[in-house]
Design brief:
139 residues, mainly alpha, 2 domains, 79% helix
Length: 139
């Protein structure tokens, strides 16, 4: 049903993997420089409570669960929207002309996939807006 997304998804995953591999080797010198500049002498003489200073304080909030939740919610709404759009227009689609079952299947896949992508994007935009609102309240 969603065969159209296989090639771009595979290309994106491979491209991202190659990018991260290059980033790993490019940033190696920078990481080694940071490690060289660290002062390990002060850590060995520091009391244990100063070593873990700020450990009990609140850490920066991660919004990854919000992003994933909004994305999945948007994709679910997109599936429902696509099925509703196709169901409401199924008679008009068949009346348009001599449409075979294969082209009807392809059209249904396109409508449902467009709904998934649109609502998934809307979910990510919603997560971004919520994250910005929370960050403004924190500051």
């Amino acid at each position: 049903m969603m065969d159209f997304i296989t090639i771009p998804l595979t290309f994106g995953i491979v491209t991202y993997g190659i990018y991260k591999l290059f980033e790993l080797f490019v940033c190696k010198k920078e990481r080694l420089t940071i490690i060289d500049r660290m002062n390990f002498d002060s850590l060995s003489t520091a009391p244990l409570n100063n070593l873990f200073k700020g450990y009990g304080t609140s850490l920066p909030t991660s919004f990854s669960s919000l992003k994933i939740g909004c994305l999945l919610m948007g994709m679910g709404l997109g599936i429902v929207l696509g099925i509703l759009l196709f169901a409401l227009n199924a008679d008009a689609i068949k009346a348009y002309g001599e449409i075979t079952n294969h082209s009807t299947y392809t059209l249904a896949a396109m409508i449902i996939s467009a709904g998934i992508l649109c609502m998934g994007g809307a979910g990510l935009v919603l997560a971004f807006v919520i994250e910005n609102i929370c960050n403004k309240k924190k500051n």
